[in-house]
Amino acid sequence: MISASKEPKQGLKCADSKPVIGSLCCQLSSFSWTIPSDRTKLHPFSFFYWFKQKKKNRKLQEETFSDDDEDDFENGEFEEETDLPLNYKQLTVHMKSPRADALLSTGLNLSRVKIDSMFYAGKLLHNDKPLTKKSKNVNEGDNVDLIMEDSEIVKVKRVKVLKISSEKTQTDKICVILRVWRSPFSLESLHEES
């Protein structure tokens, strides 16, 4: 049997800010813990101390990891595509290797299984030619297309590799800057203009 004391408990107040006296008459959801304001130092084993230290360590890691080289890499200006639609997104992604299937998966936000099924259906293009191996490594300036409609007018979603970093991150990944067209556009209009 639970017994309640007649004295108010330290830090335990009811929803209407009155100290609890006697038996517990309010619901448990209406109670809240209050921390006294005179507590400036936190005990090393308390949750707040741990959280504060974790936040401080995260800031230190970010400061030591950010190099000027990486800032130059991410802030690089790239030439605009005059013959392609302007509704693209420029992404910076970190990947193990710049494989064509991995680039399409991360750039177009599709699963690898869906990309594999599109590859076996023959709906992937690399620089306007059919992709023969899904594990093909791509270089800077390459286009990887996913054919959406294969009628008279071919509509594709495109991922273009703008830059591949030569340095690896701490997690042994490379940084790749992509330009992604997620809404389909027609390839026929591009070939007619050129």
Q: Can you put this structure into words, describing what you see?
A:
- This protein has 194 residues and is α+β, with helices and mostly antiparallel strands.
- The chain has two domains: 1-35, no CATH class; 86-193, Structural Genomics Hypothetical 15.5 Kd Protein In mrcA-pckA Intergenic Region, Chain A.
- It is 26% helix and 27% strand.
- It has helices at 47-65, 68-74, 100-108, 112-120, 188-193; strands at 12-13, 32-33, 89-95, 124-126, 129-130, 143-150, 154-168, 174-186.
- The strands form two sheets. It has a six-stranded antiparallel β-sheet with strand order 3-8-7-6-4-5. A two-stranded antiparallel sheet has the order 1-2.
- The protein is elongated and about 65 Å long.
- The N and C termini lie far apart (87 Å).
Secondary structure tally: strands: 8
How many helical stretches?
A: 5
The CATH topology of the largest domain corresponds to Structural Genomics Hypothetical 15.5 Kd Protein In mrcA-pckA Intergenic Region, Chain A
CATH architecture tag of the largest domain: Roll
Radius of gyration: 29 Å
Q: Roughly what fraction of the amino acids lie in strands?
A: 25-35%
- Main sheet attributes: strand count, strand direction, barrel closure: 6 strands, antiparallel
Query: What count of domains describes the coordinates?
Result: 2
Task: Classify the secondary structure makeup into a structural class.
Answer: alpha+beta
Quick check: average pLDDT?
A: 72
- Bin the helical content: 25-40%
Judging from the principal axes of the Cα atoms, what is the shape? elongated
Q: Which consecutive residue ranges, at least 5 long each, have pLDDT under 50?
A: 3-9, 20-39, 63-72
CATH class of the largest domain: Alpha Beta
Strand order of the largest sheet: 3-8-7-6-4-5
